[in-house]
Write a structure and sequence with these properties.
The protein has 95 residues and is α+β, with helices and mostly antiparallel strands. The protein is built from three helices and six strands, in the order αβαβαββββ. The protein has a four-stranded mixed beta sheet with strand order 1-2-6-3, covered by helices on one side. A two-stranded antiparallel ribbon has the order 4-5.
Length: 95
């Protein structure tokens, strides 16, 4: 089933979830979830910016940085690893 609209608006139309992944919308979605959930629910949220991730971690209780360095060939034939943009994950229970 697909429900079109902003998550903060349409989540009220959905049945109570067992778990929630927030991959966009960030803090606004978490704040609405906090009001919406009627029972303790596991929530995992991802962020690109550390300041927003820290705010979410203060709400959810856990914070992790995930990055996958990619090998890059240097002009002299050596290799080094370069980190791509990191992703910050926060998780815990809301409701």
């Amino acid at each position: 089933m697909v429900i079109a609209g902003r998550s903060e608006d349409v989540m009220w139309q959905l049945p109570d979830p067992n778990a929630v992944f927030v991959g966009g919308g960030g803090l606004e979605v978490l704040n609405t979830l906090k009001k919406r959930l009627t029972a303790p629910t596991f929530v995992l949220a991802s962020f690109a910016a550390i300041d927003r991730a820290v705010t979410a971690a203060n709400l959810l209780g856990r914070l992790m940085q995930v990055m996958l360095p990619v090998g890059k060939l240097l002009p002299n034939g050596s290799w080094r690893f370069e980190a791509e943009n990191p992703v910050f994950l926060t998780w815990g229970w809301l409701g």
